[in-house]
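Ticket opened by: R.M.
Priority: normal
Category: complex prediction / small molecule

The reporter submitted a protein together with LMY7XDAE and asked that the result be attached to this ticket for the collaborator who will pick it up next week. Submitted input follows.
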Amino acid sequence: MTAQILDGKATAAEIKAELKERVSALREKGIVPGLGTILVGDDPGSQWYVAGKHRDCAEVGIASIRRDLPADISQAELEAVVEELNADPDCTGFIVQLPLPGHLDTDAILELVDPAKDADGLHPTNLGRLVLNVNRPITSPLPCTPRGVIELMLRHGIDIRGKDVVVVGRGVTVGRSIGALLTRREYNATVTLTHTGTHDLDEHLRRADIIVAAAGVAGLVTADNVKPGAVVLDVGVSRVEDPVTGKSVVAGDVAPEVAEVAAWVSPNPGGVGPMTRALLLQNVVESAERELA
Ligand SMILES: Nc1nc2c(c(=O)[nH]1)N[C@@H](CN(C=O)c1ccc(C(=O)N[C@@H](CCC(=O)O)C(=O)O)cc1)CN2
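Result attached by the on-call engineer:
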């Protein structure tokens, strides 16, 4: 068996085309959605991700607001920039690119973002709403990567209802919130959240219908610990040394041989990453539409 590909690049392009129409409709009513980014320091990966977010904005007609700040910025100075974007009427929503340098208090910064402008869906109020509103529609921003993972499966016709989902990794952008989303009544999945303290990870993985690997450990999920016919989403990103060239290359959490066992795999790159970016735009468009309502 060779797994079918969960094509994040093509699916994200489809979502962006839909969003472009919605942005046009908003512009016709005099509303120009704007995404702000706050980037601290000069990490090349973070710079690349932020540049990508602004390219996406240009593609769908969302205005861009950029705040690139020095790595040694103080907590108070960074908080002032967050407050500035909170107050900026041109900024519909914004993100603080993570990770922040170690001397900064990330939780305090995320908490300072106006929940209505929280394009990443990571504000405690928005995460709390996600946990509380099991039955009612959610009308606040949702975390982009978990939302992207679900959308990627749905748009490939994968039925999530009643499935056993095993998530590996308890980070803030994926692991901590994806269970709250997947267990909502509209998806009705059963979710096990595993992490570095989990005993018998292999056993959990082997019984999963769907695996969401977000640990940032290269090749963690192997063909041996995947049930034949499972759906495997590779969210993790880490850097490893290429054994041939000796150069540092990006690696996902899922070993390539998993494609011989699974029914579906998301490539990495080209899977969940582009979906994260598309769902960020969707959060901004939805916030702008809420302003209009
Ligand atoms: N404030 C946030 N910070 C971070 C988030 C986030 O969602 N919000 N997630 C990651 C980084 N990230 C977005 O910011 C992100 C990572 C990767 C991709 C992506 O499209 N990756 C490409 C491959 C890129 C490569 O080759 O290096 C892919 O998967 O095809 C998009 C967004 C941490 N920080």
